[in-house]
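Lest this sound abstract, we think one record worth quoting, the chain in one-letter code, the fold tokenised, each line plainly labelled:

>
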Amino acid sequence: MQIELNGKPHPLPDGATLDQLIAGLSLAGKAVAVAVNRQVVPSAQWPERALAEADKVDVVRAIGGG
């Protein structure tokens, strides 16, 4: 299947979860926020939140600095 990740096409296996997407992006354990179709999904729900064809996913990573 194909989703839109931060505005760009991104292929994923059918039935992939948010947890799997984040791990595949090497962001597991990092400070990130995720929204699917403009709805924020709490990290506790990522393991069971399956993605579907054409979902629009936005991943924002918190970066410290100053």
The beta strands are 2-5, 8-11, 32-36, 39-40, 56-61. Residues 2-34+42-54 form one domain. DSSP finds one helix and five strands in the chain.
